[in-house]
Amino acid sequence: MTALLAIIAAIFGLAVGSFLNVCADRLPQGESIVGGRSHCDACRRRIRAKDLVPLVSYVALKGRCRDCGAAIPRRIVAVELATGLIFAGLFLVYGLTGTFALLAVYAAILIVVFVIDLEHGLILNRVVVPALVLALIVAAVAPPGWLGTFGPHPIIGAAAGAASGFAILFLIALVARGGMGWGDVKFAAFMGAAAGLPLIFVALFCGIMVGGITGVILLLSGKRSRKQAIPFGPFLALGTMVTLLWGPQMLGWYLGLM
Q1: Which DSSP letter does residue 232 get?
Q2: Which residues contact 108 (CB under 8 A, 6 or more apart)?
Q3: Fewest CB within 10 angstroms: 73, 114, 128, 239, which?
Q4: Three-class SS of residue 97?
Q5: pLDDT for 49-99, tens place per residue?
């Protein structure tokens, strides 16, 4: 029964991933994510309903538009697969609970931020502000000890985490003088509200470490020059997801070493 429900969660995740692709395509253009039909970017023809089945349609069409034969971006199937696997994994760990639902929503937000910043170098207020409000509302109604936050109530840890994340990246942005975007700074506030204090420090550490290592590798390999900006949002999103899943254990391990 658990395996069947996990498969259902994965299928639901594939469908959500298809919607996240719509968000990643339309939000940077200022377009509505609820109205209008999807179309091929090459020939501009509307995509038939039978060609919108997550993953299945991509395989059936061999990754190409039915009308013009243009290649369908691999990102489409990558996002669908990633969302499906994440949803299935979350269900196997948390079951059909409120924690599963919330982490699934956070995962969806982080995937949208990851893709848009990677492709456009943007972290949009249209994504970050509602996400921040959602995280604070959740913390306001969450039980004590939620996700390892300190204080008599999770809202204290969430508010302190949001303020800490914003302040840390705000100072880095001032010092870097263009080396970090203000979208990253605002996104850090959501990170802190979602992870809380002290786990915001774990999320930032993970994001900065992975981003720094990746940047060095790209520079040494010649795939990026010092004048080319490297989007930081994807690494912050990855660090946030890792922290939401394993943050308390990681912090406990580190404090144990100390």
Answers
A1: -
A2: 16, 20, 83
A3: 73
A4: coil
A5: 787 888 888 888 888 888 787 888 899 999 999 999 999 999 999 999 989
DSSP state, residue 44: -
177 vs 206, higher pLDDT: 206
Closest CA to 200 of 139, 142, 257, 157: 157
CA–CA gap between residue 173 and residue 14 (Å, rounded):
36
Is the distance from CB of 139 to CB of 146 less than 8 angstroms?
yes
Interatomic CA distance for residues 98 and 142, integer angstroms: 10
Predicted pLDDT at 30: 87
Asked if 243 contacts 203 with a C-beta cutoff of 8 angstroms, the reply is: yes
Residue 54 exposure: Cα atoms within 13 Å on the Cβ side: 21
Which SS3 state, helix, strand or coil, does residue 89 take?
helix
Q: What is the pLDDT of residue 179?
A: 66
* pLDDT in the model for residue 233: 92
Confidence label for 22 from pLDDT (cuts 50, 70 and 90): very high
25 phi and psi, to 5 degrees? -80, -40
Cβ neighbours for 88, distance < 8 A, ≥ 6 positions apart: 6, 7, 9, 10, 13
Query: Taking the CB of residue 245, how many other CB atoms lie within 10 A of it?
Result: 17
Token pair, residue 99, equals 């924690």
Helix (H) or strand (E) holding 139: helix 125-141
Instruction: Identify the pLDDT of residue 151.
Output: 58
pTM above threshold 0.85: yes
Contacts of 214 (CB under 8 A, 6+ apart): 230, 235
